[in-house]
Amino acid sequence: MDIQQLKYYKELCRVKNFTEAGFACNLSQSALSKQIHKLEKELNVTLIRRNTRKFELSEEGEIFLEYAGKALSLYEKMLEDIRFKKEIRIGSMTVLSPYHFAKVMSAFMEQYPDIDLILDEQTADQVLAHLEEFDFAILRSLLITDTSKYNFITLYDDYLCAVVYDSHPLAGRKSIRLEELKDEEFVFPQKGSGGYEAFYDSCIKAGFTPNILYEFPQANTIMSFVEEKIGITINFTKVCQESAGSGVRMIPLEDAPHFPISLIYPKNVILTDPQKLFIRFIRKWKKESS
User: Which first-to-last residue range defines the signal peptide (predicted)?
Assistant: First the structure.
């Protein structure tokens, strides 16, 4: 008896017709019939009553169908564990490049070449909408509203700064308060990016609603609009250092809000061995890089 015979038998019981089942199994009717006879001979029972006009299982055939279904389900689960459990799916916000997370992934893949790391980069709101589809998420921690359901490992901490064009009246300042920008016109990231929410909430806490002229998904586009004096922005310091051009000035914010980026995964789940390895690797990397 082998797995393929169980599949033939289950399909036959599903369609209740040798010709149709043979077609579905890519066998002739006679070849399928021979496979069923082999099963019956090995089991020393009659599985299908052949003296009736309609397709009919014997009592033993009904019992065998139940166990065949269980065996096939267990077989598929075994294949899934073998083939796919060495795959780690990470849903990540789009602004990872300035933090050089690729180096972390490269080091992990070099150490564990048999584990596939799949990084699915999307907007933060898209990652949140499909959080259950990922083993881990990389997001700014503020986006998780129900923190009791998740574990957080802080990967990076970043804080806000103001970005103005080089001829702006504030360009020469060494630092400013966020509230001093209340009358400015802003260029922001798109809603749902995580950055938009962080910047907008920071302005509200500073006592004003920002006047947002444009929203763009890419930091480089935002910086180019600032450079052309269309507006100013606030952004994460690390992002600005990577994407700001020569025509803009970064100004530290006094008491700048901090917005950590975390590796996030659900509590109360049984982790696979590759997932445990990944968490241990991240914790070790954090300790060595701090």
Answer: none
